[in-house]
Design a protein that fits this description.
Belongs to the group II decarboxylase family. The protein is an alpha/beta fold. It has three domains: 65 residues; 269 residues, Aspartate Aminotransferase, domain 2; 112 residues, Aspartate Aminotransferase, domain 1 (Alpha-Beta Complex), CATH 3.90.1150. The protein is built from 17 helices and eleven strands. The strands form two sheets. It has a seven-stranded mixed sheet with strand order 1-7-6-5-4-2-3, with helices on both faces. The protein has a four-stranded antiparallel sheet with strand order 8-9-11-10. It binds pyridoxal-5'-phosphate (PLP). Pyridoxal-5'-phosphate (PLP) binds next to helix 7.
């Protein structure tokens, strides 16, 4: 460095450290702390509120002058690492997310160190990206010839599948002429339990929310196939073009799985695209005890799955698979002259940005690849079965506790229940919401809530390789303790 400065008389800067040995020592500390952090996660609260001085850190203005990396790390350690969302904790069961893993975190670190851009090109990361997509196909029983891409998560994976569906079924070149030129308005179908990301997808695709017909569900919250058939016939008669049916393999409310075989058959008969939102349940295909629940997923035209859920990859990584690889590429590929391929060299590899909306893409594959290599896919399958069995165990505990009420036996890993000491009207909702908030605030467990069959329920989604049955025993004890305590504090209300 000094040679350049001395020779040319200019100061040239870099972000690289002045003293690599310093950085090495600090990095060892960071890794040691990270290992301790994960090892001891069970001993910490699931979640805790941030005090005002911590919140203030995030209101500080742009730093214009430097700090030492050690000081920066200390601040992160104090203000960020101590106040996580909590989803790596064994008693986090809110919404629906995986619990991450150390190997995956190392993968993210190494991916950032290598720094490759997965827009494509001839380099190892590019091949690994395609390999992980191929592994996803193998896990779901999709043909090797199918297309696919890694994306930020399930919402984006669904958008990829639905965009291909729209373009294939539009009857015109939507890419050139836009949705306004589509002769008959397209209709998509999903159950009334469909995830909210599909609404966003329909809006972003220019089709509009109303083009997604919500089909009623049966008592088990699976799409009513007869009602779907009737809706398609009604739409055809009214001049719409039925284009796509979205089956859900694992609904976010209760984990219900649509009859994928029946939907595949119906889609084939009616000439519809068959997309499966498998963000929750597609990976059940690798779980020996429960794989039968998602039979038929391999017949889909496209599937969205989510390695950052049941493969526990650190956020973010989703995957879209499209049976017709040509249709997939035709939906997104654009080759400007500055991204043309060359016969040899760096630009001779595949351009992976041709399979989605992003140009620059992160190296998401490495965290998935490393964890799959380390543990083997079979272990991930067993962990999925373990979570499903734990949900059954929790349901049993709830049924055995007179003050608790189970909404329904779980299909997979989602359990809806409530504290119900014989209350009526709005009281159960108020009481259970308070229980949920206190469980969070006391750092005991993180649950969320939902409405099923018009009633309010607490909701436990066990997508967690750290959860043990003793955690579920504790949950039941704590819910009943809090229920009684809150009722005693507000005798007039409950
Ligand atoms: C059924 C379903 N689809 C889609 C999504 C969206 O996935 P992501 O949060 O990875 O975007 C979720 C998220 O939980 C989901 O449960």
């Amino acid at each position: 460095m000094d040679m350049v400065q001395e020779t040319l008389g200019v100061t040239e800067e870099t972000l690289d450290p002045q003293d690599w040995a310093d950085v090495q020592a600090l990095s060892h500390r960071v890794i040691d702390d990270a290992v301790d952090y994960l090892r001891d996660v069970r001993d910490r609260p699931v979640w805790r509120e941030m005090p005002a001085d911590v919140r203030d850190v995030f209101a500080a203005p742009l730093p214009r002058s430097p700090s030492s990396l050690a000081a920066v790390y200390d601040e992160v350690s104090r203000s960020v690492m101590s106040y996580p969302m909590g989803n790596i904790h064994p008693r986090f069961w809110s919404w629906y997310m995986g619990s991450s893993n150390f190997t995956g975190a190392l993968g993210d670190f190494l991916a950032a160190i290598q720094g490759s851009n997965l827009g494509g090109g001839n380099h190892a990361a590019g091949l690994m990206d395609s390999q992980v997509v191929n592994w996803c196909k193998q896990m779901l029983g999709f043909p090797a010839s199918a297309g696919g891409t890694l994306v930020s998560g399930g919402s984006m994976a669904n958008i990829i599948g639905l965009t291909v569906a729209r373009n294939v079924k539009a009857g015109i070149d939507v890419r050139q002429h836009g949705v306004a030129a589509i002769e008959k308005p397209l209709r998509f179908y999903g159950s009334d339990q469909i995830h909210s990301c599909h609404r966003k997808a329909m809006e972003a695709l220019g089709l509009g929310n109303r083009a997604l017909r919500r089909i009623p569900t049966d008592a088990g919250l699976r799409m009513d196939i007869a009602a779907l058939r009737a809706a398609i016939a009604e739409d055809r008669a009214a001049g719409f073009k039925p284009a796509c049916v979205i089956g859900t393999a694992g609904t976010v409310n209760t984990g219900a799985i649509d009859d994928l075989r029946a939907l595949a058959k119906l889609a084939h008969e009616e000439d519809l695209w068959f997309h499966v939102d498998g963000c929750i349940g597609a990976l059940i295909a690798i779980a020996p005890d429960n794989a039968h629940l998602v039979a038929g997923i391999e017949w889909a035209d496209s599937v969205a799955l989510d390695p950052h859920k049941w493969l526990h990859a650190p956020f973010e990584v989703g995957c879209a698979l499209v049976r017709d690889a040509v249709a997939h590429r035709k939906t997104f590929a654009v080759t400007p002259e500055y991204l043309e391929s060359t016969p040899r060299g760096l630009a001779s590899g595949e351009w992976l940005h041709d399979y989605g909306l992003q140009t620059s893409r992160g190296f998401r594959a490495l965290k998935v690849w490393m964890a799959l290599k380390e543990h083997g896919a079979d272990k991930f399958g067993r962990l999925i079965d373990q979570n499903v069995a734990q949900a059954g165990y929790l349901a049993g505990l709830i049924e055995a506790e007179p003050e608790l009420e189970l909404a329904a036996l779980p299909t997979i890993n989602i359990v809806c229940f409530r504290y119900q000491p014989g209350l009526a009207g709005e009281a159960p909702k108020a009481l259970n919401t308070e229980i949920m908030l206190r469980l969070q605030e006391e750092g005991i467990a993180a649950l969320s809530d939902t409405t099923v069959h018009g009633q309010h329920w607490l909701r436990v989604a066990i997508t967690n390789h750290r959860t043990r049955r003793e955690d579920l025993d504790l949950l039941v004890r704590q819910v009943t303790r809090l229920g009684r305590q809150i009722a005693a504090e507000h005798p007039a209300a409950f």
